[in-house]
Amino acid sequence: MVDVLSQNEIDALLAALSSGEMDAEELKKEETTKKIRAYDFKRAVRFSKDHLRSLTRIHENFARYLTTYFSAQLRTFVQINVVQVEQLPYDEFIRSIPKMTILNIFEADPLEGRMVLEVHPNVAYAMLDRMLGGQGVAPTKISSLTEIETIVMERIFNRAFESLQEAWKTVVDISPRLEALETNPQFMQIVSPNETIALISLSTKIGDTTGMINLCIPHVVIEPIMSRLSVHHWFVSQKKSRAPEEVDMLSNRVSKAKLPIVAELGASSISIQEFLSLSVGDVISLDKRVEEGLQIKVGEKLKFIGSPGTIRDRVAIQVDEIVSEGVEEDHDE
């Protein structure tokens, strides 16, 4: 949008030019000078801010699903939260993780390529200890996994990928499957060192043990569905209309739902001493007159005004007035 100068600003500009405070030639040079921005080819920007925001939303759901899954499996306090979503070269990610760690290499059809779920040893060994009947405490010295420990780890994280599948459903239906479990990052080369990746960092707490879970997604893997990570696609996908059969089923279930209806004769306040001294035949004075209508509430909301009576020897309420939407009962009595 072009800025429009006011008359005062135009007068001030002309005065500055005539007095020599500003040079017209210098202004022309500033307009023609190209603005140059430095670009680092080693850290190519492949993900826009919009893409990173969408990845954050997806993996916040992933963190919630993981929290539920691990809490049920380990039967202890588990808390997982998204700390950061950033883009960086794959080589930088490899150099940032421990030399001894748990690397779950997996694929997710229909996406082509491999991704990595890196779990800090403290977190992984706390899970392992808990699954094998311990207190969920990570060992002070991290050693290589035995065959039995490897099988247990694979089973834990194989089912964790179901949470990833559920989190990505709003964008694309994926079928993650574990390809390999490694412990040495040097033996894991899923893309070229300069390839840009999206790194989703999850802070994890299991009992008293804390650590990080990092999800590495190469740009080349999700490039075919990058357009679906835009905000526009999210809004369009959320506006999909329901099928007529679903609407009929929903209406049928709602129409059969039971609601509590209460008719209040009135209210009264008495002291505890008066309450304790009540006996058969005592009369409690209410705050409503006999000729006043009774408040009929559906749930906690006032919906009708009615009058008491009987029908076929049973107590009944006749609806005399429908309370308009938004009218609340008077609490100042």
From TrEMBL:
Single Gene Ontology BP annotation: bacterial-type flagellum-dependent swarming motility
One GO cellular component term: bacterial-type flagellum basal body
Domain Flagellar motor switch protein FliN-like C-terminal, chain residue ranges per copy: 253-323
Primary residence: other
Membrane topology: Peripheral membrane protein
Keywords attached to this entry: Bacterial flagellum, Cell membrane, Cell projection, Chemotaxis, Cilium, Flagellar rotation, Flagellum, Membrane
MF-aspect GO terms: cytoskeletal motor activity
Name of the protein described by the UniProt record: Flagellar motor switch protein FliM
